[in-house]
Amino acid sequence: MNISSLIMFDEFERYIRQYEPGLTREQMQLIRSKSVLKKVRRRQVLLHEGEVCQHKIFVLRGLLRTYGTANDGSEYVMKFTPEYEWITDPDSYFNRTPSELNIDAIEASDVVLWSHDDFEALRTVIPEINTLSEKLITQNMGVTQKRILLNISANAEEKYQYFIATYPDILRRVPLHMVASYLGVSRETLTRIRQGQAVAAKS
Amino acid sequence: MNISSLIMFDEFERYIRQYEPGLTREQMQLIRSKSVLKKVRRRQVLLHEGEVCQHKIFVLRGLLRTYGTANDGSEYVMKFTPEYEWITDPDSYFNRTPSELNIDAIEASDVVLWSHDDFEALRTVIPEINTLSEKLITQNMGVTQKRILLNISANAEEKYQYFIATYPDILRRVPLHMVASYLGVSRETLTRIRQGQAVAAKS
């Protein structure tokens, strides 16, 4: 293992310990042995729709995107995953069914992969992993619920306002057409909203 | 315990066994002892926004609704939960934070309640419960992802088509304004879509 991998593993270990400070050195060693580091190029695809999602993916550095394809062939962004967040297709991962989603890298990224089988093995010997896993899933569900509520109750401008207030960092790192796709508004509408706000900010 | 409660517990046990056929009689007895049956009147509220969500709720009979309130005071339907499905506010339930959602009964219902503390006790002695719990959460995530994808990619007519294809039974049991609220379209738009489809079906 080279030094950069060691540093990354150490960083991942510190992250895990935030949630589960009580893990022993042996448990942590086991988790390390099941965690695969991967360097991902920009635009590299980690999950193709139609495949079974094999991993829980943790982003150490970089930015991933999860997206689906509509009937007319256009892409729709489901989620952006920056540093220190997890991404998987939970339905496909857990039920071993073909995914309807794709996951690719918007920036060159360092990720940690937990394969389905390794994770199942880990959770039987380290029950604390279940708590961590459920905590992450439910945090994710909270974000998702908020998004649905916005989708059905807010107009395009309110959705954009919420996005820039919640994800100011992602806004700077992602092309505008992907933000439009995430919000479910056309690029023209988003441009109009941003111009309106720039004018309002100046006056 | 009266006979109707016994019958309901037996039904709940059969449901659990579908997922976890390997549970022993003692484990099942423990699950029963932590499961609280509740008869819910129509319009009765099981969770008020601002409260911490205390339960995982399983619907044996009836129909529940989860809804939020927008800034302008109007209600937005997050989810309908019919027989043999679970509902909770996962974020509030797991992280013990005040919920932004309400859960009430659209029909008189029989539900099974698992309290947070009882469930935590159950999962430490019956690890199979974790698998069941995660399976249910991820199924729910699959539905939720599909909904977000529709919300950002489909027009009102397509969303309605998907709803009646996926939940024909719920459509019959729920007032139309709640369906409109679930879809995030106005009641007028929904009426127009339904009239258009009725005309198309006749011609």
Question: How would you describe this protein?
Answer:
2 copies of one chain form a homodimer. Chain A is α+β, with helices and mostly antiparallel strands. Chain A has a domain at 3-127: Jelly Rolls. Chain A contains 9 helices and 8 strands. The first copy, chain A, has helices at 3-19, 25-34, 90-95, 116-125, 128-153, 156-166, 168-173, 176-183, 187-202, and strands spanning 36-40, 45-47, 55-61, 63-69, 75-82, 86-87, 101-105, 109-115. In chain A, a hairpin with a 5-residue loop joins strand 4 and strand 5. Chain A is elongated, with a radius of gyration of 19 Å. Chains A and B meet through strand 5, helix 3, helix 5 and helix 8 of A and strand 5, helix 3, helix 5 and helix 8 of B.
Overall SS class of chain A:
alpha+beta
Give, in spatial order, the strands making up the sheet with the most strands of chain A. 1-8-3-6
Architecture (CATH level 2) name of one domain in chain A = Sandwich
**Distance between the ends of chain A:** 57 Å
Summarize the amount of helix of chain A as a percent range: 40-55%
Extract low-pLDDT stretches of chain A.
Answer: none
* Assembly status: homodimer
Query: How many β-strands of chain A, per DSSP?
Result: 8
Largest sheet of chain A: 4 strands, antiparallel
Helix and strand run of chain A: HHEEEEEEHEEHHHHHH
Number of helices of chain A: 9
**CATH class term of one domain in chain A:** Mainly Beta
Please tell me what the overall shape of chain A is: elongated
The radius of gyration of chain A is 19 Å
State the fourth-level CATH superfamily of one domain in chain A.
Jelly Rolls
Task: Report strand % of chain A.
Answer: 15-25%
Please name the CATH topology of one domain in chain A: Jelly Rolls
**Most residues in contact, chain pair and counts:** A-B, 41 and 41 residues
Mean pLDDT rating of chain A: 90
